[in-house]
């Protein structure tokens, strides 16, 4: 296995003699002391700093940290990995939200860590892949990579705001930044209009601060609210920029909306049209160096990164993660309806009767409603990431065990009477990096780019958590307060244009013969795996969709290719 095609940072603490000389010769050694060694695969000075003789800072290209000599990780909300080593006590610190992935594993008296799985496996000299079936269950049933339950046994991912300390051959992990303890007014009593003004002010200040650090600016523009709002903020910051947008061959695109916005804000546009073959070929290519099973929508960002890099762009904005902060997905409206329905039946003491009636509904929607009713009845917290099959059946032992795997300790320790939507939001924020930050981070570094999740400043996250749910989900409108904030300074004509939303790239290739053949071939391969049969045998309904394991199969296949 060779990690030269991966741009990453890695380290070894403890018995560093385990690291082979050939490895030391192959990569750039930044710190070389008896009990700690730090490496990078490619020497890009702007990506790291020696803060002082006992600490090191990896930024992955982010220029948000201007003065590393006064660096304070408790106050810094940009992306970083910070290492401190004093008197045989070694500390590894993740940024507040895990904007940079940091994997680690303890073997004997040694701890290995890296921002890249391939780099980590190489430094550990691992030649076999011992699958963690708990992590596989979490991945299949929730579609996320768990921090505590990784796909490889004993390998974990350091969650946001964590301080890992290694001393006397033992590891301890504490939270120096805990989203459940943010100093925020959980009961935001401001009117919706006041909150829209606050959102607008925070986003402008953070965007203006970011663009000052870069020469050439780009944005991945979808034609929707979040990225369009960011484009307006870059323009308001008095900087020129280019926008990159994707459409599908013979498919729907948002080019009319992009052109309208470009005319208002005076930015350049680059439109990239993709065919099913291009999407699939690119997916297989970029999966080869991805540390996690790669989502198809994340993979097509590679086309934007490649074009932006060729244009000399050094920072690329995007609106990723805003939907999690402001409840912007349509399924959240459905979940709100269900929660209101459930609460009403509970108050009227009609819960049992309603469940009996739902059992008579021979339709997937009826089964899913039964599932959620039983889940809440068993005291399992309310969150919407659980992926349900049409044949879903509720097994209390299985769901309690699965819930125990997916929930981090900081959420398990919350008051049982916490507002359900607040818990829902905290859960979403905790897992947002695994959906939106980690794999794009690796793709961007491959092209020498850096992104800045502009909605994810501490100030914005605190505000988003405090805003009442009814200001986010209003009638049939998602993220209402964010939409209203975006409308303050964007021409009304933009909002009147047709908005359907770019089709998920995986769903798009499923409509084409070339894509169908690709999917069917991998479905057959998945069905032959031990992992597929494990899930069939260990899931109550046994209804396992092999398509949901295709990206896992491709990821595993790539991990041990040279």
Automatic annotation (TrEMBL):
MF-aspect GO terms: asparagine synthase (glutamine-hydrolyzing) activity
Q: In which pathway does it act?
A: Amino-acid biosynthesis; L-asparagine biosynthesis; L-asparagine from L-aspartate (L-Gln route): step 1/1
Task: Give the catalysed reaction(s), semicolon-separated.
Answer: L-aspartate + L-glutamine + ATP + H2O = L-asparagine + L-glutamate + AMP + diphosphate + H(+)
- Annotated GO biological process: asparagine biosynthetic process
- Which InterPro entries does this chain map to? Asn_synthase, ASN_synthetase/amidase, Ntn_hydrolases_N, Rossmann-like_a/b/a_fold
Q: Which SUPFAM superfamilies match?
A: Adenine nucleotide alpha hydrolases-like, N-terminal nucleophile aminohydrolases (Ntn hydrolases)
EC class of this enzyme? ligase
Tell me where in this chain the Asparagine synthetase domain is found: 199-487
Q: Which Pfam families does the annotation name?
A: Asn_synthase
Enzyme Commission number, as recorded: 6.3.5.4
**Which named protein is this?**
asparagine synthase (glutamine-hydrolyzing)
Which source organism? Xanthomarina spongicola
């Amino acid at each position: 296995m060779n990690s030269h095609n991966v741009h990453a940072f890695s380290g070894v603490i403890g018995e560093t003699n385990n690291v082979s000389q050939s490895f030391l010769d192959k990569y750039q050694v930044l710190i070389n002391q008896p009990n700690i060694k730090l490496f990078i695969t490619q020497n890009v000075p702007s990506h790291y700093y020696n803060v002082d003789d006992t600490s090191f800072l990896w930024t992955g290209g982010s220029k948000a940290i201007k003065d590393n000599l006064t660096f304070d990780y408790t106050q810094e909300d940009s992306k970083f990995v910070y290492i401190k080593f004093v008197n045989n006590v070694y500390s590894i610190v993740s940024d507040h939200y895990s904007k940079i992935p940091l994997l680690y594993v303890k073997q004997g008296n040694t701890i290995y860590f890296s921002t890249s799985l391939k780099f980590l496996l190489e430094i550990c000299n691992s030649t076999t892949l011992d699958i963690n079936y708990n992590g596989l269950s979490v991945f299949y049933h929730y579609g996320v990579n768990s921090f505590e339950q990784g796909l490889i046994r004993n390998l974990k991912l350091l969650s946001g705001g964590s301080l890992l300390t290694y001393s006397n051959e033992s590891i301890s992990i504490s939270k120096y930044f805990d989203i459940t303890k943010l100093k925020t007014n959980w009961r935001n009593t401001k009117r919706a209009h006041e909150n829209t003004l606050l959102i607008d002010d925070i986003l402008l200040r953070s965007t203006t601060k970011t663009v000052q650090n870069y020469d050439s600016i780009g944005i991945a523009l979808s034609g929707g609210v979040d990225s369009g709002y960011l484009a307006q903020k870059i323009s308001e910051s008095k900087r020129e920029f280019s926008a990159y947008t994707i459409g599908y061959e013979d498919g729907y695109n948002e080019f009319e909306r992009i052109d309208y916005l470009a005319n208002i804000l005076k930015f350049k546009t680059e439109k990239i049209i993709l065919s099913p073959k291009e999407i699939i070929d690119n997916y297989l290519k970029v999966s080869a160096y991805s540390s996690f099973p790669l989502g198809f929508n994340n993979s097509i960002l590679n086309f934007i990164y490649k074009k932006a890099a060729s244009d000399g762009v050094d920072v690329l904005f995007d609106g990723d993660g805003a939907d999690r902060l402001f409840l912007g997905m349509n399924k959240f409206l459905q979940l709100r309806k269900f929660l209101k329905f459930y609460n009403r039946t509970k108050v009227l003491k009609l819960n049992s009767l309603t469940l009996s009636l739902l059992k008579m509904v021979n339709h997937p929607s009826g089964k899913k409603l039964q599932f959620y009713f039983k889940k809440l009845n068993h005291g399992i917290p309310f969150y919407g990431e659980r992926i349900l099959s049409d044949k879903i059946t509720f097994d209390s032992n299985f769901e309690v065990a699965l819930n125990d795997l997916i929930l981090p300790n900081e959420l398990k320790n919350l008051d049982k009477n916490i507002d359900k939507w607040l818990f829902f939001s905290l859960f979403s924020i905790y897992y947002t990096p695994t959906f939106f930050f980690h794999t794009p981070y690796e793709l961007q570094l491959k092209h020498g780019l850096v992104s800045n999740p502009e909605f994810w400043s501490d100030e914005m996250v605190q505000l988003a958590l405090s805003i009442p749910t009814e200001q986010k989900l209003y009638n049939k409108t998602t993220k209402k307060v964010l939409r209203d904030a975006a409308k303050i300074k964007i021409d009304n004509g933009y909002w009147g244009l047709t908005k359907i939303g770019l089709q998920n790239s995986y769903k798009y290739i499923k409509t084409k013969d070339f894509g169908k053949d690709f999917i069917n071939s991998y479905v057959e391969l998945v069905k032959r795996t031990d992992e597929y049969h494990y899930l069939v045998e260990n899931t109550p309904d046994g209804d396992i969709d092999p398509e949901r394991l295709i990206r896992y199969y491709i990821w595993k296949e790539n991990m041990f290719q040279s």
